[in-house]
Amino acid sequence: LLKRIVALFPQTIRMILTGYSNIKSAIDAINLGHAYHYLTKPWDGVLLRKTLDNALEAASLEKEALEIKSALIKAQKIAGVGSWRLDIQENDLKWSDEVYHIFGTEKGNPLTYEDFLSFIHPDDRKFVESRWDAALKGAPYDIEHRILVNNKVKWVRERAELKVENNEMVQ
Questions:
Q1: What tens digit of pLDDT does each residue of 62-115 get?
Q2: Are strands 141-149 and 92-95 parallel, antiparallel or unpaired?
Q3: Contacts 24+ apart (CB under 8 A), 97-100
Q4: Is residue 13 a contact partner of residue 55, using CB atoms and an 8 Å limit?
Q5: Kind of pairing, strands 92-95 and 152-160?
Q6: 159 — phi, psi (to 5°)?
Q7: Which of 68, 80, 158, 159 is deepest in the core (most CB within 10 A)?
Q8: For position 4, what pLDDT does the model report?
Q9: Rounded CA gap, 132 and 129, in Å?
């Protein structure tokens, strides 16, 4: 039943109030992301109220995050600017919708740093790789280079701020 409700109303905050002492199914529902919280009998009015308030706050924050994401996507499309994130340790590259559009490729394909390099004009690849290697050692990364999109040359500008954790580049 809960799976059907989730399919019909994915944005709804769901809580489970139960009289059963065996709460395995409630915990499973929470772990699967189908329920926000569960309460068992006897219900404490103060705890129930606090849980409801927290659920409403979570729903409000989720709605706000979706609105901000939508505005960002729209702004990037209007400006013709995209954003990207590379998990260096996992070699997992994430592009915004607009970067997929700029690079003329289908949205959602899993990407790596090597996939990105395959779009770069052959005469610019060594330059891009050398600047990226320098950035990994602390140099700024702010470059312009050519990419090939459907056999046409496009110029792009890239900037990156690398994230360091425990003296190790991670993004």
A1: 899 999 999 999 998 999 899 998 888 888 999 999 999 999 988 877 899 999
A2: unpaired
A3: 97/73, 98/73
A4: yes
A5: unpaired
A6: -135, 150
A7: 158
A8: 75
A9: 5
Please answer whether residues 111 and 95 qualify as being in contact, where contact means their C-beta atoms are separated by less than 8 angstroms. yes
pLDDT at position 171 over 60 = no
Average pLDDT of the chain, as a whole number: 85
pLDDT at 164: 67
Q: Tell me the three-class secondary structure of the chain, residue by residue.
A: CHHHHHHHCCCCCCEEEECCCCCHHHHHHHHCCCCCEEEECCCCHHHHHHHHHHHHHHHHHHHHHHHHHHHHHHHHHHHCCCCEEEECCCCEEEECHHHHHHCCCCCCCCECHHHHHHHECCCCHHHHHHHHHHHHCCCCEEEEEEEEECCEEEEEEEEECCCEECCEECC
Model pTM score: 0.69
Distances (CA, A) of 113 to 65, 108, 122, 146, 159: 28, 15, 15, 16, 15
